[in-house]
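Section 5.1 Outputs to date
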Amino acid sequence: MEEAVEEVVVEVVSPAEVAYALDTFYFLICGAMVMLMAAGFAMLESGLVRSKNTAEILTKNIGLFAIASIMYMICGYGIMYPGDAAMSPYFPGFGSLLGASDNETAAVLAGGDGAPYYSGLSDFFFQVVFVATAMSIVSGAVAERMKLMSFFTFAIFMTAFIYPVQGFWKWGGGWLNEAGFLDFAGSGVVHMAGATAALVGVLLVGARKGKYGADGKVHPIPGANLPLAALGTLLLWFGWFGFNGGSELKISNVGEANAVALVFVNTNMAAAGGAIAAMMFSKILFKKADLTMLLNGALAGLVSITAEPLTPTPGLATLIGGIGGIIVVLSILGLDKMKIDDPVGAISVHGVVGIWGLLAVVLSNSDATLTAQLLGIAAIFLWVAVTSAIVWLVIKLVMGLRVSEEEEAMGTDISECGLEAYPEFTSK
């Protein structure tokens, strides 16, 4: 009796397909790591505000991420990456609505002439968490006195239009990219842009009641939960490996793998340098090791290295982060003297230090020029400041920006959300 011979069909997978799958998977994992930064911002901000505003700040952080995802899908991504639909290097036009066609590249083998080396939708997923990060920066700066719906309304315009246009100028192949402006992972495109929108919002909404005395004296308003703030900082630190590491875009060959390893190391060393420098500088200034300054110092180090984490040595990355840590302490103190009330230090961390990060690119990247970097700083700041001012002012006229004095005293948890995060402990 003859035995049946089962035919085994072996599907041959080309190296290009393996590389495609690996790079797509790496992109998605890095995007998920950056999404964890949303939790980091939520914990950091809820730890640095008073307990009576905790539920509202958490609502803002989760709500803004959902708004950013929807608006970037509807039009933001098409504006930032219009492709052949770009009207000019200055005006992006609109590519198309995000859809299944954006993933047709999954059927294209990598390595061909101009063929992409990862799924189109993986690129969208990675980009959408960046725009949410920019909007998260605004959340903390205007905390404890802005109307929730006014904030969400601004989030719609920020994520659908304001952020994508200046993102197109650099990452979409627009005029800043052609001018030689360098910003590897977004010290300017993401962090300074978010901080600029936050600055305009803070100037229009005003300071919290009791923050500044008539004599100009600054009255500290301590946060309710420093353990949460510390947890948030560590979550952001972790997520930043995806933020910077994913911006290398590939990992499927030896050269790219080595580049990703260097980006990870430099990202970590800059954060460490920023944390230690801020802590020691605060010890010199205040005779105490201020935890909040250490936390903001670590974040400042991360922002400092985001514009160029690939070309510095680990030692130089530590120094760049350390300088950022010192700058953030000086900036937080300086903004308070100017009566610009930022409860979490977001404008200093992401804006002032974001400028430093863009300038620091010239220290290690031979392709960078100070002129191009200054041009990018000015262009992003002016675009976001002007457009944000228009949107904030319209919202102020139509809806109002600030809660009433009574609602502010009661806490935005009750006035905006109708519940308390800590009902047993909140003082009435």
